[in-house]
Amino acid sequence: MDDGVKIGLLGIELPTRRRNRMNGVVSASGKDGFSVRVDQSFGNCPKYIQTRDIQLTGDRNADQPGTIVSGATISTEAKALIERVDTFFIASRTKHINDDPRSGIDVSHRGGRRGFVQVVNNSRISFPDFAGNRIFNTLGNIVDDGRVGIIFADFASGDAVLVSGRASVIWDKQRVSAFRGAERLIDVAVEKTVFAPAILPVSGELIEAWPDLAKTGAWVPD
To answer: Which residues contact 41 (CB under 8 A, 6 or more apart)?
Structure first.
């Protein structure tokens, strides 16, 4: 969070399916927070956002702090969470970060049916890419650089799994056609994982799934 570094932020309102992506530069930072000089800000369509009733829960770990587990591979607990979520958030970047306004960091939302993310093994995950807003910020960054950070959130338990690694776009027709609704697949070679129990300070009861999810598949049947 040093002054002058580039940053990507995502504002998302799950009860209304509104979202906005913003990229900029940290203009000032300190113990009380930080300020961002906005370079780009744009709204996204509501596709694949599950409507949730978001409630603040505070520190779920206050009475019985959970144990944060990190490692180079996906643990059994992390695998179970990844394969049951219907929402995750992914950060990506351009290969070079410099004064060029086309370089920087981006954060995006991904949604699907429970089981739309596959843990192929303890060092690789795979997920489909559906038809979206056709801006291709995330895919463009993956092609350019490949480094990604992902957070998988369980809004019921408050547990989360963070994954960092190298992503690649898969166009293989046989693999893509095996997942209903996918236009391409994304594979992530995992480099580091963090399993954080009850870390989310909010809960989010599912009110309505995105209507067109019925046209998409899942690696693990409901």
So the answer is: 20, 21, 22, 23
pLDDT at 100: 86
What are the distances in angstroms from CA 45 to CA 81, 167, 215? 27, 24, 18
pTM value > 0.85: yes
Which residues partner with 152 through β-bridges? 88, 161
10-residue mean pLDDT series, the chain (222 residues): 92 96 93 92 93 90 79 96 96 93 92 95 96 85 97 94 98 94 96 95 94 86 56
The closest alpha carbon to 62, from 221, 197, 220, belongs to 197
Could you tell me which residues come within 8 angstroms of residue 182 by beta carbon, excluding any fewer than 6 positions away?
A: 128, 129, 130, 176, 216, 217
> Are the C-beta atoms of residues 148 and 188 closer than 8 Å to each other?
yes
- C-alpha span between 131 and 184 (Å, rounded): 9
* Pairing outcome for strands 105-111 and 87-93: antiparallel
How far is 23 from 178, CA to CA, in rounded Å?
Answer: 35
Element (H, E) at 13: strand 6-13
